[in-house]
Amino acid sequence: MTKVTSVKSSDSVFNPKKFIENERTRSALKVEEINCFLESNPDDQKITHELLEQIITDPILKCDSYYYDKEKNQEREITARKIKRLSLYMENDIKLMQKNQVKREKIDIIKNLQLNPKSKFLVNKDLNIFDKRLSLIGMIDPQLSTRVGVHLGLFGNCIKGNGTDSQIRYWLQERGAIFLKQVYGCFAMTELGHGSNVAALETTATYDLDSDTFQINTPSLTATKWWIGGAAHSATHAVVYARLIVKEKDYGVKTFIVPLRDNSNFQLLPGIIVGDIGKKMGRDGIDNGWIQFKNVLIPREYLLSRFVKVIPNQESTDVSVKIQPQLDQVSGYSALLSGRVNMVMDSFRFGSKFVTIATRYAVGRQQFVQVNEVGRIETQSSKKKEQHGHNIANVSNNKETQLIDYSLHQYRVLPQLAIVYLISPAAHDLMSSYYNTLNELYEISSPKSDKQQADTTDKNAFSTVSSKLKNLFISSASLKATNTWLISNLIDELRQCCGGHGYSQYNAFGKGYNDWVVQCTWEGDNNILSLTSAKSILKKFVDSATKGKFDEGLDSDDFDYLDPDFIRKVYTHDISATLEDTDDNTNESLETYIEIWKIALIQLLIHIGKTIQKTKDFDQTTILLVTVSKFHAIHYMLKTFYTKLKHDEISHITDQHSKDSLWNIFKLFSVYFINKYSGQFQQFKILKPSQISSLIQPKLVKLLKEIRTDCIKLTDAFELPDAVLNSPIGYFDGDIYHNYFNTVTANNPPESDDPGKPPYHNVLTSMLSRDYEYDSRLGGSLNKDILEKLGK
Amino acid sequence: MTKVTSVKSSDSVFNPKKFIENERTRSALKVEEINCFLESNPDDQKITHELLEQIITDPILKCDSYYYDKEKNQEREITARKIKRLSLYMENDIKLMQKNQVKREKIDIIKNLQLNPKSKFLVNKDLNIFDKRLSLIGMIDPQLSTRVGVHLGLFGNCIKGNGTDSQIRYWLQERGAIFLKQVYGCFAMTELGHGSNVAALETTATYDLDSDTFQINTPSLTATKWWIGGAAHSATHAVVYARLIVKEKDYGVKTFIVPLRDNSNFQLLPGIIVGDIGKKMGRDGIDNGWIQFKNVLIPREYLLSRFVKVIPNQESTDVSVKIQPQLDQVSGYSALLSGRVNMVMDSFRFGSKFVTIATRYAVGRQQFVQVNEVGRIETQSSKKKEQHGHNIANVSNNKETQLIDYSLHQYRVLPQLAIVYLISPAAHDLMSSYYNTLNELYEISSPKSDKQQADTTDKNAFSTVSSKLKNLFISSASLKATNTWLISNLIDELRQCCGGHGYSQYNAFGKGYNDWVVQCTWEGDNNILSLTSAKSILKKFVDSATKGKFDEGLDSDDFDYLDPDFIRKVYTHDISATLEDTDDNTNESLETYIEIWKIALIQLLIHIGKTIQKTKDFDQTTILLVTVSKFHAIHYMLKTFYTKLKHDEISHITDQHSKDSLWNIFKLFSVYFINKYSGQFQQFKILKPSQISSLIQPKLVKLLKEIRTDCIKLTDAFELPDAVLNSPIGYFDGDIYHNYFNTVTANNPPESDDPGKPPYHNVLTSMLSRDYEYDSRLGGSLNKDILEKLGK
Asked: In this protein, which residues make up the domain named Acyl-CoA oxidase/dehydrogenase middle (chains A, B) (predicted)?
């Protein structure tokens, strides 16, 4: 096929390259330093790049544009092949982490971990490298990381959270689930009639004393386990959420290990009925399925019993049930907690991809101010020109403006860049809180022996961890919901910023959006999660405001705005919102960009409290409570960003210009959202209407213009290789049109025998050449003659 | 496969049915009357239902759930088959419209129209039935209506708008394009480097005096015609937008007919290079392609020359170019105008589908208030229960609430219902303005003979039509942009309202969204269109405010808020915004719901005017101008709805309860958007902060509760058959779980030999059973022995 392409670098097709090069020359930003800031620290930065390189150069794991043309069945199989490949990386990652354990002994590390009962008991942080690998894969091929994540994250964490030490070691280590060996698990929680509303699940696990077994059953259609990732094709085992029924008493929903398939040949086991959920909006590489159980028997020991035990007496004539309720409930959710924390990290990573693409396109693409159709009619000069023509030489002199130089386009793109920047420190911070808190929990709740567990728990220590965990639930719920929403919106908005080309599957937005948006629904619907976290914040607020209850040690990080003194100051107007308009970036002036959100949160909570008092209708305040959760997340992000950037030793930013640029990002984030929520800011008297016009909006425009000058380097600083972007209009070299054209033509080669002639051309030719009704379809002859004959 | 299903109607799986039945019994709404209101009038209502029934019962045209599992190549072919089928309906629809023309003469109507030069010259309204058919198909299978729409709408209207009468008759009627015969057209406007920015297009059409031909060329890669629907597979001809170059002078972009393929065998013609754009975010049934021209020769007569003529002199030694600029520019866009007007209608139809699904699901689905994970820990009573268990008999007594009874869920669903209701009268109104204005334009611009055209045009009449057309451009741009955005958001929001089930492809949201969102980009990017219309509104505002210019006859419909008197009143605060809080629905009280938007528009325009004066920076006000366009659209919708419902003879609503319910919808729409834009309403002092809290938000909650009682009947009133919805969670009978389960299982039957065993199971078994490194992969023997040997 002949391509009209360009070899002259003066040709307009090379403008995008030149524009992007210019930006790089012009901006003094230190890309490496900023990348380190975004990746948390130099060590993590190094690992990120090593892992990314490994992923994109691996012939099985890498994704390219051909990926966009696969259909469901192909995606399913390709994803399985990638999982197989990942299992080898997984072994290697564990070996790297464990190599000091075995020193110079010549043993197979994995074999030892699996088969030697004295080997190390693996904990979360032993999987750090692989977890990071998965998290990075999530940016490139999210269905792959999810499909593995269901096994390792949901299935694995559910066992870790609910199993005894022996159960954990058996299923994960000895049987090999953690190494992707022998056991491949799925997480059978949700049912057709019940989403993440665990308490209402219908599946039953009925204890039978005689055989000492549980019988698992699906009592109704709505009890069908539904949406279960891995159930349709790949799971050999499931953790099943089912009602524990012992002697006709219902003890609520507990977790059970139920084998599904023979792992040697993948045949379903008796009593297990499985089906494929089929085509989804996205992530078709995951084999979501449904499961029904018909009198499936499992041994009593398959009940995960860290916190619940079914104990037949010595003579096997009676049975008792022992439940440790507090821990039960805290830990029961830890499987989901991990997912939420990871989704905040996903938000940073996934968002960085699209903001890189759209920013490069905005710099490279040129466009007139769209000539107003009506406007044109009225413009005398243009009319004249059209009428009389002009010399060809002038035609190419059309001065088209780069998209990024339009205020409106800056407003559409750059705040999205700020959002991604602000998520990063929050995501890293949340992740480390999660690991630290879970480790504390495991340590104090780890039973010395199975029988003594409840007694040996240190109550004070537990109470502290429990509070930390509660706070983590609140912030992770709020951040998961707020950020997955923000990224949905980001992908959509930035796709529109790339015009028609954003609609091409090869430019990543379409599949990206379809894969992404399920994050707003699964593992806690965003609205429900927002309510959950906001209700807890409201409760804390009431405790603080009315009883002065505030835990200086535990709450001063995420909930500093709930300090009783601060609440009082806001209430009595001792403090009022402002944004310091200086460029010197002193701590005091920068803190005003955070404090305004603290005030907003308190004013919003006061309003909600009053509304409930007045109307006695809690339900009606839920619309506002969703906003509380969003404000909490915004405040959290501003605060963690500020704390990090303020301290050179953790920000790793030494270059002053780079630091100033990051402070601008910080300010833009705050100001953008103040403007977006200006309804609330005025309604609750945080700002006056005149301040929106004279302070917020001019500052917004000013910040956009400033950030615009560094925008290419700010996206370069994500350091995403082209193979991660997988979007030719966003590649590093900025050669937008060649890259895009070459991708489209490579993926859609012309028909080899007859280019441009579709395989189904006969459908079209027979339509276009069809005859007239009377001439052929109703008779095949001159109609009048026949009709006259018939009429006689 | 065994299904756990239910035959007892007391089973919980039947709750959704019962809930939905109850709503129907309880509400006194007159569904038929409201449907008539939505369909404009009884005649149109009847036609809509007849056409819909024909579409969903036609074995080729109907869509079912299998449709969701097709991949690109299948969709392409299926869509072509449907077009072939549609061509027969098209003939029939024209025959129905023309049968009075031929009376009792026994002739083939189509043959006569095509081949008899004296036959009727077909105009837009002769295609009314088929256009409506296509519009309805757009709700069921949007890629089909678009693929035909490119030919009939874009290709056809471009010829109608730019061709002489002879050219129109030849291409559309004699050659048969309008009957889907012989000619299948595409619309080659956009280029790789240039979107709808027509003036910058690069393709050239250079006149050669010797041969009296044009030579069409693609001078650069960015000039490649790109995104051209129909180019990849189906078009035999293109209208090509290219720069008219005569004697080295560039006369700007004009339109040319260029043959692409031999219509008998679909081989590409020489000089035509065509490629497939490939996979898109949605609408893969359309064969979008790219085209490059290499010295393609076409006769001079293939220039569409209603308003531009290239005239060689008698001796063929010189050539002159004659351009009628004003008409040229007005008409040039009429091809796009039709698309925009149709997209407003699409917004109504497409939106009605998803709001029906989500409302039924919201009524049928039950859910606890999601138990707050943290909250649960603190609830003593629930803890007790868990600890001690409770009798099984009580388990099924869980009182789960219907989703629709949560305030937050009402807030998420019901305003979307109001949006769809408000679009309907606006869409019908815009459509008839379009037809009327275009007819006027054709009548006055229709040349008596080609040579005299410019002289015989009645200048006054033209000026009036031209002004009407300008107004139509403004309102259609604003309504297209605003409503296609609203519907994108509606689909996304309502998908989330259906939780995980909304993510299943079989429930219509995924494909619906992917197909829909391109409407925000094509035929005028929404941001650009919004700016275009807002700039014109700003200009009108300045003319009215500073010079008292206001055309009572032309502007008092869409632009009544620009009346100089009204502007003055707002400016001097002689008038202030309020919402009458009475339930008597007098005209006066209802009008306050419109007037508040008129005031908002003026205040916003005043602010923008002042900002430009102060900053001299027009570009920076573009962010606010987008809001002007949105407010204009909201005002237009409120006004047309009000005007229609106020008059019984055009509303066709006689039942008082139904009318009141519709007035509530009207109020909800206004109040919902006031609350959504409360930032602007406070900033520009249309409302005080206290009014948002005491007036707007309580009214919003009150209206939601009132509309909730009729919500099922309000969606029934769209009268969409299940086959149109194609979403089992939204079917009429409300049997959500059976319908959904049956659809999923029908589309994904178990593997016939070994259920639940994937075709690629060997990938998984080989992973799960893999050996240890030293045992097999690195040697196949005890590693220590070998290593010792090697170490010696």
From this structure: 186-296
